What we know:
CATH architecture of the largest domain: Orthogonal Bundle
Distance between the termini: 42 Å
Order of helices and strands: HHHHHHEHEEEH
Number of strands: 4
CATH topology of the largest domain: Peroxidase, domain 1
CATH superfamily of the largest domain: N-terminal domain of the delta subunit of the F1F0-ATP synthase
CATH class of the largest domain: Mainly Alpha
Radius of gyration: 19 Å
Helix content: 55-70%
Number of domains: 2
Amino acid sequence: xxxxxxxxxxxxxxxxxxxxxxxxxxxxxxxxxxxxxxxxxxxxxxxxxxxxxxxxxxxxxxxxxxxxxxxxxxxxxxxxxxxxxxxxxxxxxxxxxxxxxxxxxxxxxxxxxxxxxxxxxxxxxxxxxxxxxxxxxxxxxxxxxxxxxxxxxxxxxxxxxxxxxxxxxxxxxxxxxxxxx
Length: 181
């Protein structure tokens, strides 16, 4: 995780934030950036576009940082990514920073993908069961993928737990194809 380009940027941000005792502040700022990326697809398109100059993206990210009321370290982080032409790494860097924060707090993060949005009760049940399995507190990020048809796919660290209907049907089709030969 840290060996990736996004991982190196996130680790540098994490270490600086820890040295300055502003980890929680940076975490909150990055959560606002993540929310902005999720709510404004045009922001993601600008970040990914090679047609937008580094100078333009640097200015835009400065304005966005001011609008989101980011702390100075997070604002500088966005500026460095923009100036170095690495804004395409922003989403991954935020995910790595979140993982570093979770580890720092003695927690783990898991991504749960389901065919339909999970209820609060289902999320709480999964957090409890995954925490017992991992031996530490697990926080969930949720995603929806209707192609799963039903069930869930859970990524907890390097472990993938796939209890989706889609995978079960694919497995059954493979077995049936092998038996027919």
